Amino acid sequence: MIRRVLFVCTGNTCRSSMAEALLRKMLSEDLGENAATIQIVSAGTGAIAGDIATPNAIEVMKNEGINLKEHRAKQVSPHMVNDADLVLTMTIDQKKAVLNMMPTANNKVFTLAEFAEGIKEIEELMNQAEKLRRRLEERRRSYLEDRSPELEDLRRRMRALDGELRQIEQKMEQEIADEKKDLEEIQAKLTSLEISDPYGQNIEAYQVCAAQIKERLKTVVSKIKESLLES
Questions:
Q1: Helix, strand or coil for residue 39?
Q2: For the chain, how far is it from start to end, CA to CA, in angstroms?
Q3: CA distances from 126 to 95, 123, 130, 193, 203 (A)
Q4: What secondary structure letter does DSSP report for 52?
Q5: Under 8 Å between Cβ of 15 and 90
Q6: What whole-number percentage of the chain has pLDDT above 70?
Q7: Residue 114: per-residue pLDDT
Q8: Nearest-5° angle of CA 98, CA 101, CA 102?
Q9: Half-sphere exposure of 59 (CA within 13 A, CB side)
Q10: According to the model, what pLDDT value does residue 227 have?
């Protein structure tokens, strides 16, 4: 008997929160008062507890007649998985994460699509995919080992070229040392004439910026006053 359903995604601010709300509404429409006997919750494998649902999720649910503004994210826990009769994840990786947390729950943890569509071969497909990944890695390794002498020759030639390049760069730096120094001095002067953008920084950066502006405005004020006297 399914009395407790747990939806799982990553942050618990989009998919699983909407799934929780939608299922609750659908059960209410279908079962009436009996829907209250079904506990529906959601959580995330990487959720930050207390996070609100994303604006877009709230808006979409609003169009469904659901208020998601009160939703608060929760981190999935072994206790939550243990209490649930059915655990539905949004992805295979999330399913794996839940099963890594509680391997004994394998008979009640499914992806939402897997459960809804009655797919039975998902575990077999996952095993096949893993076998193929291992085979690909082994073939890559074998290929590189077979070409090892050729690759080593290429690496040796590249090291020699790198050495020649470094020598040229060092000579070039010596040749342009004076010009580089002059340019650095000019760039330093130009930088001192700028007011750095504080965007994305803390309040102290804004305070520094304001102080720099005020300091420079003193000269502006003086120039304005002088121009008035001359008129």
A1: strand
A2: 93
A3: 12, 5, 6, 61, 50
A4: B
A5: yes
A6: 79
A7: 82
A8: 90
A9: 3
A10: 54
